[in-house]
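Input (structure):
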C-alpha cells in the first residue's frame, strides 16, 4: 500500500484573509534655501534639530494631528540637499528639502475615505503654511524660513502594511 501526502495545505489561501488598508501616507515637500556647507544631512544632530523645529512649529499651529492623521512623527520625515548650489556672490546656496510624512493607520475599509480626506486636508494646511514662509528651521544659529510658493504635496497615497499584515494586490491582508 502506497501513502500519498497532501502538501497543498501548506500554501496560504488568501480567500480566508480579511482585506485591510494598513497605513496611508502623503508627503509634503518643503524647501529651504541654505548655504551648501551648512547642509549636514545625515548627521543625527542636524536631522534631529530640523525635525524638532518643524514639529514644534506644526504643534504650535495645531497642525500635528487631525482625527487619526499625524504629521509630527519624526520617523516619517526625510531630509535631503540637492547639492547643486547656485552661486550668490561667494556663497553657494542649495535647496534643502524636507519631506513631511502625513500618515494615518486605518483598521478597516470604512475608515479609508475619512483618512484620505483628513490626510488631504492636513497636507494642504501644511503646504499653505510653508508657502507663506511660515515654517522655519535653525541652521548654524541662523533662522531660515521655507521658500515661498515652492511646497508640493504628493498626488498619490502611498500604502504600506502594518505588523501582522501582508501585501496583496489591492492593499493589505491580515489572517483570521
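Output (sequence):
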Amino acid at each position: 500500500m502506497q501513502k500519498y501526502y497532501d502538501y497543498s495545505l501548506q500554501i496560504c489561501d488568501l480567500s480566508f484573509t480579511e482585506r485591510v488598508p494598513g497605513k496611508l501616507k502623503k508627503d509634503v515637500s518643503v524647501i529651504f534655501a541654505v548655504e551648501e556647507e551648512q547642509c549636514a544631512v545625515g548627521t543625527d544632530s542636524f536631522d534631529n534639530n530640523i525635525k524638532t523645529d518643524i514639529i514644534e512649529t506644526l504643534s504650535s499651529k495645531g497642525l500635528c494631528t487631525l482625527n487619526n492623521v499625524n504629521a509630527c512623527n519624526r520617523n516619517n520625515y526625510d531630509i535631503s540637499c540637492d547639492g547643486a548650489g547656485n552661486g550668490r556672490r561667494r556663497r553657494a546656496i542649495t535647496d534643502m528639502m524636507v519631506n513631511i510624512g502625513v500618515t494615518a493607520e486605518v483598521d478597516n475599509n470604512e475608515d479609508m475615505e475619512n483618512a484620505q480626506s483628513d490626510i488631504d486636508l492636513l497636507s494642504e494646511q501644511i503646504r499653505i503654511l510653508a508657502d507663506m514662509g511660515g515654517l522655519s528651521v535653525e541652521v548654524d544659529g541662523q533662522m531660515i524660513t521655507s521658500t515661498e510658493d515652492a511646497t508640493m504635496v504628493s498626488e498619490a497615497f502611498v500604502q504600506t502594511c502594518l505588523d501582522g499584515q501582508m501585501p496583496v494586490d489591492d492593499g493589505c491582508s491580515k489572517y483570521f
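Notes: The two ends are 38 Å apart (CA to CA). Residues 18-170 form a domain with the Alpha-Beta Plaits fold (CATH 3.30.70).
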